[in-house]
Automatic annotation (TrEMBL):
EC annotation from Swiss-Prot or TrEMBL: 2.5.1.75
Top-level taxonomy: Bacteria, Pseudomonadati, Pseudomonadota, Gammaproteobacteria, Alteromonadales
Entry annotated with the keyword Repeat: no
A biological-process GO annotation: tRNA modification
Cofactor: Mg(2+)
Protein name from the UniProt record: tRNA dimethylallyltransferase
Top-rank lineage group of the source organism: Bacteria
Enzyme class: transferase
Length: 322
C-alpha cells in the first residue's frame, strides 16, 4: 500500500492556489467546439482564446467558420485576425501569445477558455516547445539554390549525414522540413535534433481538458460536407477571390495551405472545376479531422464529450466546479 505524505498534500494545495485554472475544449473540425466554448464562457465569466492556425488570419472568415459578433454573443475572443494572409505565425508565436492572454484574463478574475483544433498549438502550450532559432533569408536562399542544383534527394542525404535522427524522421520528398532542418544546421552549427531537445518548461496552469466529437465517423463526415457546402453558398469562392486581389498569395503560404482555401485558390487558377474543388475540399477537411482525432485519442487527462449530447455544457460546468 502506498501513502501520500501530508507535505505532498500541502504542496498540491499550494499549487492549486497559485496556478490559474484554464479550460481546454479540443475537437476535430465541425464538432461544435466554438458554441460550447462560448456557452461555457457566458456561465463562468470566461474569455475564449482561439487555438486555430487559420482563425489568426484577417479577411479569412467564411472558409474558417470564424465566429461573427452575433455568435460571440458578447464573449471576448483572443487570437483572431492577428496576421494578414501573407504572414506566417509559428507554434512559438502562439505559445507566447496564448500565455500572455491567460495572464491578462486571470489577472482580471476571469476564466481562460482555450478552444480549437490545432493540436500542435495545444501540445506546445501545455507540454512546452523546442525553441528552434530563426534562420536568415540568405541561408534559406542558399538551401533553395542547393536543392535546385543537386536535387531534393541529394540534399536530404546531406541532412541525414549531419543529423541522422531528423534525416530518418523526415521523408526524403518533404521539401519544407528537409529545407528547414538544413537551414537550422547551417545557421547555428547545431542540428535540429539538438534544438528540439531544448524544450521550454510546461505551462504553470491547471488545465481542465475536454474533447468533443460525434460518436460515429459518418456523422462527422456528414457535418463536414454540410458545413463546406454552407461555406460555398455563403460566398467562400468570392472571399478567396478578394484575398487574391488584395494580397500577394501563393500555395507555399501557411494561410493558403489551410483546408478549403487551397482548393478554392487552385479552382480560381483554373486547376480544378467547381465540382472538383468542392469534392477535394471536403476530402481534405475529412483528412484533417482524421489527424485531429488521432491526436485526441492519444491525449492524456482528457474528458470525452459527444457532440450530440445535450448535457455537454453541464458536464463541463460540473468538472470546473462552477
Amino acid at each position: 500500500m502506498s501513502y501520500v505524505k501530508v507535505t505532498d498534500i500541502a504542496e498540491n494545495e499550494r499549487l492549486d492556489k497559485e496556478y490559474p485554472q484554464v479550460l481546454c475544449i479540443m475537437g476535430p473540425t465541425a464538432s461544435g467546439k466554438t458554441s460550447l466554448a462560448i456557452n461555457a464562457a457566458k456561465l463562468t465569466n470566461g474569455e475564449v482564446i482561439s487555438v486555430d492556425s487559420a482563425l489568426i488570419y484577417q479577411d479569412m472568415n467564411i472558409g474558417t467558420a470564424k465566429p461573427d459578433t452575433l455568435e460571440m454573443d458578447g464573449v471576448k475572443h483572443w487570437l483572431l485576425d492577428i496576421r494578414n494572409p501573407e504572414q506566417s505565425y509559428s507554434v512559438a508565436d502562439f505559445r507566447r501569445d496564448a500565455l500572455a492572454a491567460i495572464d491578462d484574463i486571470t489577472a482580471r478574475g476571469k476564466l481562460p477558455i482555450l478552444a480549437g483544433g490545432t493540436m500542435m498549438y495545444f501540445n506546445a502550450l501545455i507540454n512546452g516547445i523546442s525553441e528552434v532559432p530563426a534562420t536568415e533569408t540568405k541561408v534559406r536562399e542558399q538551401v533553395k539554390s542547393l536543392i535546385e542544383e543537386k536535387g531534393l534527394a541529394s540534399v536530404h542525404r546531406m541532412l541525414a549525414d549531419v543529423d541522422e535522427v531528423t534525416g530518418n524522421r523526415v521523408h526524403p520528398n518533404d521539401l519544407q522540413r528537409t529545407s528547414r532542418a538544413l537551414e537550422v544546421y547551417i545557421s547555428t552549427g547545431k542540428t535540429l535534433t539538438y534544438w528540439q531537445s531544448k524544450k521550454t518548461p510546461q505551462a504553470r496552469c491547471q488545465f481542465t481538458q475536454f474533447s468533443i466529437m460525434p460518436d460515429a465517423r459518418n456523422t462527422l463526415h456528414a457535418r463536414i460536407e454540410q458545413r463546406f457546402d454552407l461555406m460555398l453558398n455563403n460566398g467562400f469562392v468570392d472571399e478567396v477571390r478578394r484575398l487574391v486581389d488584395k494580397y500577394s498569395l501563393h500555395l507555399d503560404l501557411p494561410s493558403m495551405r489551410s483546408v478549403g482555401y487551397r482548393q478554392v485558390y487552385q479552382h480560381l487558377k483554373g486547376e480544378y472545376s467547381y465540382d472538383e474543388m468542392r469534392q477535394l475540399g471536403i476530402i481534405a477537411t475529412r483528412q484533417l479531422a482524421k489527424r485531429q482525432i488521432t491526436w485526441l485519442r492519444s491525449w492524456q487527462n482528457i474528458n470525452a464529450l459527444n457532440t450530440d449530447d445535450e448535457s455537454n455544457l453541464t458536464q463541463v460546468l460540473q468538472k470546473l466546479g462552477a
